[in-house]
Amino acid sequence: MSDALKVLLICTLLAAGCTPQGHSPRPLYTQLGGQAGIDRIVDGLLWEIAEDAEIRALFADTDIQRFRNKLAEQLCAVSDGPCVYTGDSMRETHRHLAVTSAQFNRLVDDLIRVMEQERIAVGAQNALLQRLAAMHGDIVAE
After folding, report:
1. What is the number of domains present in the chain?
2. Alpha carbon separation from 3 to 6, 17, 104, 116 (Å, rounded)
3. Residue 37's domain is classified under what CATH number?
């Protein structure tokens, strides 16, 4: 057996030994900190929106308490938590707002900033963002 093949075999065995058998990764909901973590993310995002002149106007006629509750519910449901989203569809909610891609991206940047402040792991951030990205076509008017 060649030295390169021996090294490859040893590395494979070591990597397999470090992976717990039958252990699945933690659910995204758990990685986000459960309901308390999601509530902190939503509250942080509300502060970011209030400070962000580029997107703040989109929320001028919004019932902020309802928005907060429905966003928390939606993030919980999207992250495989125990919630069921009971709000309006994203298409219905955003159809009169003429949200641009730039505004959508700005909100994503704000969300990332909040998740970083909450010390959410990058993998969990990416998983959540990937799930939320599926809503882009229902939110952006362009």
Report:
1. 1
2. 5, 21, 53, 43
3. 1.10.490.10
Q: Would 13 be classed as within a structural domain?
A: no
- Each residue's pLDDT tens digit, 46-105: 999 999 988 998 888 889 999 999 999 999 999 999 999 998 888 888 888 888 889 999
Amino acid 130 reads: Q
- Would residue 16 count as lying in a domain? no
pLDDT, mean over the chain: 84
Given pLDDT bands bounded at 50, 70 and 90, which one contains residue 114?
Answer: very high
Residue 128 inside a domain? The answer is yes
Nearest in space to 53 (alpha carbons), one of 117, 110, 116, 113: 110
CB 44 within 8 A of CB 118: yes
Give residue 17's pLDDT.
42
Q: How far is CA 4 from the centre of its chain?
A: 42
